[in-house]
Amino acid sequence: MEAIEKHLSKLEVLKHNYISEGGIENLLNHRYNGVDLSIVSKYVLQPFWNWIVYDKKLSPQIAPNLITTTGFLCVLLSYLVLFISCPSMDPEGQNFLFRPAVFLCGICLFAYQTLDGIDGIQARKTKNGSPLGALFDHGIDALVNGFVAVQTITAMGITGLGAYFLYVCLMFGFIASTWEEYHTHVLYLGKISGPVEGILGIIFAYFFIALIGSGFFAGGFRHAIIYIFGLVGTAFYIRGSFDRIKTSLVAHNTYSSAEAKRIFLQLAPFAVLAGTGFLWGIINPTMMQNWPRMLMFTVGQALVILICRMIICSITKEELILWHPLHGVIIGAMLVDCFRVFPSFLVLCVAMLVAWGYYFHYVINLVVQLKNVLGIKVFKVKPVIHNE
Description:
388 residues; two-stranded parallel ribbon; CHOPT
């Protein structure tokens, strides 16, 4: 970890401050607010997480951000093993490792959920809570959401545009939650929520698939049920978030039909990116036949960047601008591919490298800027000073 800290400190050549001085002032006064109404969380998960941190005496030398990162690495490990067991996402390409890999996905996702739960408890225990920690946690969650979406679709054996549609549905659940938090300044988890019951449901689905195989989900009728469930669930999630935003506006005497419309249209940049990917898959079917993961991760990483922007603006209270040069990159790549001037694979590679390149530049600079402003280490615990 010391080596990583040194490398972060040497990244001045990449320096770009994405947060203004005014935003920094607001960031320093930021306080996290959350509501969790889940019965499972209250009576099962929270006691379990507290048991790990306090009863098992999790070392106070373990930094909360290190716990968060370890959770991401667990998901990345399971994703890579599943990729090896089914490189094409097509059920016909599954090899002997597929069922064990899906079982590993369940274990690793539970590990991620647990580590994601205890990082905040560890931060409070060691008095190392910070805006950087909040950003780090939410940013990792957004990244993990994409990996879990792809590996879940792979485990279910769904391919083609149906796979892309489900990917977008799973991403929009997280988008809606972040959008709501931006406006209400409260992370709201209802009696049934994605981070609790949603993840547990996916874990049980992994174990079920590992036991009987992905063939259970084969067939047009069952696929139709899954698509309808994904669409209705996403619409319900967005509607719930929008209703809570309107309630917050009313409570602060700022509600108007024009304001509600303006807020709802903030989802348009996300919809344009998702729609571009879907249209690209229709125009060139080989995209979802030959390179489904690449297309999903190209569009998905652009969505993650917009999510991170929303998280930052929520913490810094800066103006939220969601239209981004990556809209032009992805739309332009689709148009270039339409004319078949260059090989489709090359066009998709360039678009994906630009999206991921910008993402890494954005995240690294944010982390470096925040750690410098706050005077803390990313992966080391700040020592607690005891008053005599």
